[in-house]
Amino acid sequence: DSEGNYDYSGYTPGVTKGNIVQRIMPGGDLNEVFLEYLDMIADYGVQLEEAGVPVLFRPFHENNGSWFWWGKAFCDEQTYKNLFAYTVEYLRDVKGIHNFLYVYSPNGPFEDEDDYLFRYPGNEFVDVFLWTQTWQDNYFCQKQSACTGDCGTLS
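Below the sequence we write its predicted structure tokens.
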């Protein structure tokens, strides 16, 4: 607003114009706003940690789709990885949040392990592997995905 305040009550993952990822990363005009969002998450994370509650935190899910500003149509593979790492490092290393398990969760189905891991940010930033599957075509009953047991150990 005219006072320089930002309205944090909105949820705008569908806003895809304006290279959002570049703008929220360090040096971008929305970096301070992004960090303030992360600060709100961290504040709540501390409350949960004090209550002994672990959190599965799934930032930037369905990253291989093109319906969110962090999707493959709006940021490339390396930019996504940088965003995910930046977010984890800020919450974990800067804010000291240690009750979060960070979840990597692209949208399925997948052709193979490489397809699933295309935007994987690295073991140092991910604790849990999941996927989002919304189709009703019995895909997983007909064909076992790379994510249902064929991945083996990722190193």
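Residues 22 and 28 are 6 Å apart (CA to CA).
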